[in-house]
Amino acid sequence: MTTNNLVLSGTITRSRRFKSPAGVAHSVIMLEHKSQRYEADMLRNVYVQIQVILSGPRFESVAEDLKAGVEVQVQGFMTLQQGRNGQNRLVIHAENVELKT
User: Fold this and answer.
1) Alpha carbons 75 and 8: distance in angstroms, whole number
2) I want to staple 10 with a disulfide (CB 3.0 to 4.6 A). Which of 2, 26, 33, 100 is the partner?
3) pLDDT digit string (tens) for 84-97?
């Protein structure tokens, strides 16, 4: 099975935009998610901070709205990305984004 699909909502804490050498527009946001979920019949606090990458022309119409403090829901797939320090981290590559505010 090859399922890799994630839906996560939260607040943008940082954002930046750039174009690749090939001219593809990218927005990179840091998404902060806070909630409470039940696990083993006990309520637990959940906190996640994860980078989300939005690439291509379909996100250009919302790119200017992706600023710190904006609430969004993203849907996409997860992958490993190697940072400049050589450390691997999980990131979300968005396939859809919905502004909540």
Assistant:
1) 7
2) 33
3) 898 999 999 999 99
